[in-house]
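Long-time lurker. I teach an intro course on protein structure, and each term I like to show students one example going from raw sequence to a predicted 3D structure in token notation. This year I'd like something fresh instead of my usual example. Would anyone be willing to generate the tokens for the chain below so I can use it in lecture? Attribution to the forum is fine with me.
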Amino acid sequence: MGSSVILAGQGQPTKGPDPGFTEAAIPQLVAFGFKDIDPPSAVYIQRDDILVIQALQFTGVPTSVQMTARLLLPTQGSPGQPDQKGGSPIPQGVLSPIVTLQQVFQVPSNIFPQLFSVQLQEGYLLSMTFTAVTGGFNQRGQFFIRAWLARGGGVNGVPAQLLLADYITGPSVIGWPGGRTLFPTEGPGWITTRLVGNPAAGADWIYTVPATTRERIVAFNAQLTTSAAVANRQVALIIDDAVNIFWEDSALTNITASQVAQVSGSGVNATSGANPNIVQLVQPPELYLDSGFHLRVVTTNMQAGDQWSNITIAVERWLDLQ
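-- Reply from a regular --
Happy to contribute to a lecture. Here you go:
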């Protein structure tokens, strides 16, 4: 048995529509333009516009992030030597050039807001992203970035449009458009532990929430080693705003002489257990403290040789910008 193959005829295709083509039964309702359409951005940058970046971090080490922006320019450079004037209008039918701007910002290891400014070229702002370069900010709550356009006056110019405001972490990218504009206290915070230095013998400890932060106190633990001086020590928990006390709680058990007691606190009202060396204190549930607020203990009948040590506080932390 043989077989035959049908091959297309040689030469150019027949002009005009294929006689075997039939239109769809239901015609399309929308027609899209493919020529002289509007740019894909509503943000047009002029020469008086400045990009302002506000960065606040609490990682403990200097960090750096990279800003990448894409702009659609209304003009393109003319050919010729650098001393010749460029920027002639784009001839009809020639695409406008898209340029990419990149800049790395170094943010010191403190908790004070840093402001940076970037002079953009005139044109449409298409996109902007921030990515991590160096630093140990791998969780939300550590590094917050806010970017906006301002007119005149540099970083102190009149804010014209907020572009993005969000936390950046090591593996993630934040950007505009499509990004979020949040306050730094929105969403989950940074789960971490805070260590309080040992006070002098015979003195109580106090924890102060750092500046420009807000914290939710999860739990705490501290060790009290009492001297041989005979006395019953009573430990109380006090929470205040540096002026007014708004919470006090006292442990249910005494701490006696020559004892090593673990004093713990949380929002759970734990009953007295069989181990006298574990002492419980109660704090308000969902305890949020602003910067400058205090979490501290007061020990009644404390002796000169008594010593607090190993003071650890578990917190959920947010940076707090106005």
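Some talking points for your students: The longest strand covers residues 213-225. The chain has two domains: 44-78+87-176, 190-319.
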